Structure formats: structure tokens, C-alpha cells
Amino acid sequence: MLQKKDIMDALSKVIDPELHKDIVSLGMVKDLIVHEENKINVTIELTTPACPLKGEIEADVRKHLEEIPGVGEIKIEMTGKVREKTKKDDLIPGVKHTILVGSGKGGVGKSTVAANLAVALAKTGAKVGLLDADIYGPSMNLMMGAKDEPVYTIDGTIMIPLERYGVKMISIGSLVEEGQALIWRGPMLQSVLLQFLKDVQWGVLDYLVIDLPPGTGDVQLALAQNIQATGAVIVSTPQDIALSDVRRAWNMFDKVKIPILGIIENMSYFLCPHCGERTDIFSTGGAKEAAEQNNIQFLGEIPIDISIRKGGDEGMPAVWDESNPLFEIFIKIAQNIAGKISQISLC
Fold first, then answer.
1. What's the pLDDT tens digit per position in 197-250?
2. Closest CA to 292 of 262, 269, 266
3. 297, CA 20 to 30 Å: which among 69, 154, 174, 306?
4. CA distance 144 to 324
5. Beta strand pairing call for 298-301 and 260-265
6. Which of 113, 121, 123, 133 is nearest to 96 (CA)?
7. What are the residues whose beta carbons fall under 8 Å from the beta carbon of 342, sequence distance 6 or more?
8. What are the residue ranges spanned by the domains of the chain?
9. Per-residue pLDDT tens over the stretch 90-113
């Protein structure tokens, strides 16, 4: 009968392509059972449900197990569990990772990307929250279809987040009258933001996506001072001028010691729904070039598509519809971000 040691020796030859370590030392091998006739049942627990290399790793596991002399039937179960890096803060103790979504300026579709990213991560099986930190221009309650839904509290203090499309969310837009102007100075902004962190019943989350206001300012500084953010995603457009905007955002996050997870190029191109011709309305490649110049990962490009606009107006993120061509684009971006976070967590 096969010995577990022999099986683990074989599995130690399987290298995670992103983490560059073997799956045994990474603690991914779970529930290894050897049955009669040397049948093997093994569970491989990846570092995130959104792992983009799941199929490649499973094939490599099977290959090395089949090379064991006398091995019988092999059953492999692939699961995923987000690993948590030790955090210094305890404002949001149940949240494993915080993802800040920012931009060097407004008008680049940052909030649209944040909403679809949160839903995409939830689609992969992760537990996800979405915090609208754009206090002056909140939009998440509209984009996530919670325009008229009130936020309830426990004992008038702890807020219960709304739940939409598998995502827990909170936005100042759900707490004030629509169209009301908020004329607050920095200290008030920080106070509200801290409430959204510590006084919301987030529960256990793998990822909390935080939609930042555009540019650099009090909200970004308050977050840097009060939580240990896992990393930031910069959203930009394709024009050459995007280079300066990306540098501005990159410099801000660098100064407050928040790692950059990568850059997303939004409104990258227009694909005609009738003839299929691609048109680079805003030029092309500016964000990708900025990523290369700053040695930052390029996470992907999102085209101009009417379904994104329609989804935002109607309160249903485009990625929710799995028949939409944008589904695969957003899922791939979410997988790239999850993979980057796994690398950070295990380094």
C-alpha cells in the first residue's frame, strides 16, 4: 500500500506558478486519504477561490501523482481559502484584505470598476464587502441597486450593511437624502469614514473593496493612518496624459506605504456591436505604458460598452450577467488582483 510520505514527496514537486513555491510547503495539501488498491483522495486548498491557475495546478498535481509506481484511481478536489497576512489594526478584525480603488483624477470610471470588481470577486466564491469612501460624490448605492433601501442599525450604533449581488456594501448615499450636498471639512470626513470601518457589521470578509474619491486628499490619508491596507488598484484611461495621473496616484500610495496591486485601463477601446471593428477612441496603451515605466502589474483593459453604462444606471453591475462578454474581462482582472494579494500575503 502506498505511504503518505511517498505521495507528499510527489506533491512537493508541484510548484505554484505565481508564488514560486511547492504546494506542500505552502500548506495547500489537505485531507489526503489512501484507500484500498492505492486509490488516492486529496484536497488542494488554493490561496484564493479566484486563483487564475487552478486548472494548471490541478493538471500538475495529477501528473505527479500518476508517476507514483502502483498508484490507483486519483480523485482531486480543488478548493480555495484566502490567506490573511498579520495586521496591526483591529478596526475591521474580520476583514482579511482591504483593496483601495483609486485614480489620479476623476472621470475615469473608478467607481464603476470598483463595483464590478467587488461582484467579480464574489462570483469566484470569495466573501466580499464594498465601502463607498467617496463621501462628496457617493454612487455605490445607485450602482448596486440599493437606491431607496434604508440602512438599519443595532441599538442605533452598529450599521447593518446592505447586501447586493453577493456583496455587503455601505455608502453615505444610503444615509442622506438624494442630491443633498455634504459640506464637510477633513475631520468630519475622517469621522464618517472610521464609522464605516468600525461601526459596520462586516462580519468575516476575504476582501473589502474601498472606492476612494478621485485624486489625493483627506480620505486617502485617513485610511493610510487607520488601517493596514493590503494594496491599491489604480484606474486610468488610455491617453498619454494618463501617465502623469498614474504617477500622481502612485506617488501618493508610495508615500503612505500602501503597495500597488496594479493598474487597470478603463475605456480602453470601443468594439462595434454591429461590425466588430475596434476603435481606439482615446488612443491606446497609456495606462499599460505607465505600468511598465513604474514596474507595476498591468491588470487588464476594459472596453467602452453600453452595458456598463446601462448597468450603472439600472443598479446591476455588468459582470453579474455571465452571458455578457465583459464577464470574463472583469473575472480575469479579479483573478489577477487576488493572485497579487496571495503573493503579498505569503511573502
1. 989 999 999 999 999 988 767 788 888 888 889 999 999 888 766 677 778 888
2. 262
3. 306
4. 17
5. parallel
6. 121
7. 18, 19, 47, 48, 51, 82, 83
8. 4-80, 95-346
9. 788 899 999 999 987 778 889 999
Q: How many angstroms separate the CA atoms of 94 and 80, rounded?
A: 18
* Residues 186-195: tens digit of each pLDDT: 567 678 888 8
Containing 58, the helix (H) or strand (E) segment is: helix 54-66
Question: What pLDDT was estimated at residue 44?
Answer: 97
The pLDDT of residue 155: 82
4-80 and 95-346 share one CATH topology? no
Supply φ then ψ for residue 287, to 5 degrees: -70, -40
> How many Cβ atoms sit within 10 Å of the Cβ of residue 278?
11
**Fold topology of 4-80:** GMP Synthetase; Chain A, domain 3 (3.30.300)
- The helix/strand/coil state of 268 is coil
Partnered with residue 271 across adjacent β-strands are 278
Query: What's this model's pTM, rounded to 2 decimal places?
Result: 0.90
Cell 461582484 locates to 119
The three cell numbers locating residue 28: 495547500
Confirm if 206 and 127 have CB atoms less than 8 A apart. yes
DSSP character for 19? T
Q: How far apart are CA 242 and CA 219, in angstroms?
A: 22
What pLDDT, on the 0 to 100 scale, is given for residue 181? 53
Burial 293-321 (b: 16+ CB within 10 A, else e): ebebbbbbbbbbbebbeebbeebbbbbbe
DSSP assignment of 247-259 equals: HHHHHHHHHTT--
Q: Domain 95-346: which CATH class?
A: alpha beta
Residue in 98, 134, 128, 105 with CA at minimum distance from that of residue 116: 128
